[in-house]
C-alpha cells in the first residue's frame, strides 16, 4: 500500500546530498520525486551529483520509473540556481518585449541548463494574470496584466521547456494574480465569479492545455462565489467539475506545498492530503517539513481502510503518473559534468537573457527551432 501511496507524493530533502534516512524513505515508500530548494544547491557539480544520487534510487523501486526532480526556476526573484547558471529576468520582461519566439528560447535555454544537471521538472511558468497592482506575491512574476498576452507567452514557454526535455508545470490554477494575502502566510479569499475567471484568469490556462502542458499546480485560494467551503487545492468543484469536466484538462494535478499556512492554519495536517486526493489532486507536494510526508502516508492508509478514499482511484492515478514519467522523462540521468559545463551559463544564453532584460534581442539568437 505504501508503494501505491508514495508515488503520489513529492518531498523536499535537507541538504547537498541525501541522508541515509531520506534514501530509505524514498525507496521503501516509492516516493514520486524530490523538489530542490536553495538549501540543496551550491555549485553545478554538487547539484549534478545530488540529482544522480536521487535518480539512482529508481533502480531499487518496484517499477524502476524515473523520479521527478523539480525546482522553482521562473526567472527574476524566483530562481534557485545562481551563477554560473544563466540568470534570467522576470517574466514581465517577456511580456514587455512581447515576442513569443523570445519566450520559447528563454524556456528552452533555461530548460537545457536544468536538464544538464539532471533536473527534469520546473515549477514554471507562472501563468497568472497580474490584475491587482497591490499583489506583491505575483508582481513581475507574471507576464502581463492582459490575459491574451499571458496566454500567448504561456504557450511559447511551455513549448520551450518541452523542447529541452523538462516538464513544465503551469501555476497557480485558477489564477493567483488578483490576491493580496500571501498563501505562504494565510488563506487568501477572493470574490471573483466563474464568469470573471473565464474571461480573465482561465484564459492562459485554456491556451496552455492546448500546448501539451501535462502538469498543473493548484492555488491555495478560496473563491467564495464559486466554492464557499473549500480552497481550490481541496475543492472538487474546481478540480473535478471545472478543471476536468468543463475545461477537459487531461494532465496531472499537483498541489502547491501542503504545509503552507493557507492550509495548515485552517485544517488538520492529517486531513489535508486525504481531502486533496478526494478533491481530485494527483500529486501531493511537501517541501520543507520532513515529518509531514510520513504522516500523510499514514493518514492516506487510514482513509483507504475507512473507505474515505478508494484504492481503485489511487491505482488509476498511479498508472497515469507512471505513464507520464515514461513519456516525459526519456533520459533521467544527468549528462557528464564536463558536457554539462559546456551548456551552463552558455554565452548565447547570457546574451539572450541580457537582450530580454534590455528589451531588445539580437535576431541571430531567435533563429527558429
Helix content: 40-55%
CATH superfamily annotation: Glycoside hydrolase, family 3, N-terminal domain
Number of strands: 13
Order of helices and strands: HEHEHEEEHHEHEEEHHEEHEHHEHHHH
Structure description:
Strand 4 and strand 5 (78-79) form a beta hairpin. The protein contains 15 helices and 13 strands. It is globular. Helix 5 (100-117) runs antiparallel to helix 15 (347-358) and helix 6 (147-163) packs parallel to helix 8 (202-209). The chain has one domain: TIM Barrel, CATH 3.20.20. The protein has a 6-stranded parallel sheet. The chain is 43% helix and 11% strand. It has helices spanning 2-6, 20-28, 44-56, 91-97, 100-117, 147-163, 194-199, 202-209, 236-246, 261-264, 271-279, 292-306, 311-328, 337-341, 347-358, and strands spanning 9-12, 33-36, 68-71, 73-75, 78-79, 121-122, 167-168, 170-173, 189-190, 215-218, 222-223, 252-254, 284-286. With 369 residues, the chain is α/β, with parallel strands linked by helices.
Amino acid at each position: 500500500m505504501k508503494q501505491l501511496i508514495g508515488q503520489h507524493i513529492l518531498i523536499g530533502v535537507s541538504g547537498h546530498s541525501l541522508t541515509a534516512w531520506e534514501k530509505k524513505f524514498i525507496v521503501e515508500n516509492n516516493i514520486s520525486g524530490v523538489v530542490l530548494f536553495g538549501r540543496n544547491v551550491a555549485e553545478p557539480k554538487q547539484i549534478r551529483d545530488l540529482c544522480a544520487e536521487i535518480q539512482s534510487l529508481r533502480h531499487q523501486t518496484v517499477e524502476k520509473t524515473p523520479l521527478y526532480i523539480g525546482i522553482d526556476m521562473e526567472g527574476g526573484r524566483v530562481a534557485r540556481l545562481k551563477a554560473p547558471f544563466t540568470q534570467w529576468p522576470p517574466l514581465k520582461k517577456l511580456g514587455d518585449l512581447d515576442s513569443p519566439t523570445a519566450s520559447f528560447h528563454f524556456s528552452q535555454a533555461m530548460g537545457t541548463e536544468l536538464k544538464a544537471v539532471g533536473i527534469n521538472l520546473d515549477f514554471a511558468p507562472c501563468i497568472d494574470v497580474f490584475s491587482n497592482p497591490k499583489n506583491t506575491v505575483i508582481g513581475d512574476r507574471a507576464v502581463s496584466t492582459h490575459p491574451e498576452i499571458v496566454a500567448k507567452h504561456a504557450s511559447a514557454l511551455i513549448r520551450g521547456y518541452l523542447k529541452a526535455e523538462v516538464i513544465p508545470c503551469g501555476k497557480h490554477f485558477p489564477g493567483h494574480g488578483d490576491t493580496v494575502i500571501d498563501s505562504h502566510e494565510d488563506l487568501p479569499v477572493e470574490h471573483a465569479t466563474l464568469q470573471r475567471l473565464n474571461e480573465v484568469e482561465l484564459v492562459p490556462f485554456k491556451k496552455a492545455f492546448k500546448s501539451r502542458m501535462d502538469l498543473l499546480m493548484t492555488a491555495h485560494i478560496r473563491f467564495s462565489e464559486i466554492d464557499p467551503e473549500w480552497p481550490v487545492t481541496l475543492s472538487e468543484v474546481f478540480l473535478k467539475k471545472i478543471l476536468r469536466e468543463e475545461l477537459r484538462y487531461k494532465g496531472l494535478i499537483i498541489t502547491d506545498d501542503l504545509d503552507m499556512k493557507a492550509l495548515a492554519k485552517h485544517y488538520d495536517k492529517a486531513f489535508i492530503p486525504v481531502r486533496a486526493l478526494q478533491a481530485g489532486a494527483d500529486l501531493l507536494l511537501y517541501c520543507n517539513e520532513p515529518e509531514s510526508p510520513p504522516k500523510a502516508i499514514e493518514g492516506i492508509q487510514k482513509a483507504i481502510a475507512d473507505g474515505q478514499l478508494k484504492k481503485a482511484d489511487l491505482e488509476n492515478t498511479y498508472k497515469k503518473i507512471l505513464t507520464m514519467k515514461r513519456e516525459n522523462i526519456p533520459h533521467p540521468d544527468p549528462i557528464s559534468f564536463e558536457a554539462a559545463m559546456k551548456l551552463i551559463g552558455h554565452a548565447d544564453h547570457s546574451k539572450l537573457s541580457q537582450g530580454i532584460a534590455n528589451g531588445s534581442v539580437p535576431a541571430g539568437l531567435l533563429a527558429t527551432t
